[in-house]
Structures are given as structure tokens and as C-alpha cells.
Specification:
alpha+beta, 4-stranded antiparallel sheet, 3 helices, 4 strands, about 25% strand, globular
Length: about 80
């Protein structure tokens, strides 16, 4: 799956994002500027909250259900 750009506007967005990804069995990362961190970790997600060009990496063949849940954070 390609990297998907995501954006968080406030701290509550990160908390909700992490809660959503934790409901899925997929291995999910957040990547930015050479750092790749576990998207299911609130600490990891907050550490990239101010980073530019944050991308979601989902390690699954079909993750359309996850992407639907995260649609408000995806930058198309």
C-alpha cells in the first residue's frame, strides 16, 4: 500500500486517530522525515504531531475500512 498523507489539527485529533487504528489488526505506522513510528502508540503519534509531511503506512492488502474511519485525517 502506498504512503497516505495525514494531518492533525489539534491534540484531540491524535487521540481519536490512535483509538481508531487500535481497533484494527493491521500493522500501522506514521512516517515523517526518515522517522517511522508505531501509529498505535499515543506517544509516537504525539511525537510527530508537529512534523510536516506525515504519512500513514498500513501493512495490509485491503484496508478500506480503516481508511474510511480515518478519512477526516487523510489529505487528498
Amino acid at each position: 500500500m502506498p504512503n497516505i498523507p495525514v494531518k492533525f489539527h489539534k491534540p484531540e485529533d491524535i487521540i481519536r486517530f490512535v483509538n481508531i487504528v487500535n481497533h484494527f489488526d493491521y500493522h500501522v505506522n506514521l512516517a515523517s522525515e526518515g522517522s517511522v513510528l508505531d501509529a498505535k502508540s499515543i506517544i509516537s503519534a504525539f511525537s510527530l504531531s508537529n512534523a510536516e509531511n506525515v504519512e500513514l503506512q498500513v501493512h495490509a492488502v485491503d484496508c478500506s475500512d480503516l481508511l474510511e474511519e480515518l478519512s477526516e485525517y487523510i489529505c487528498y
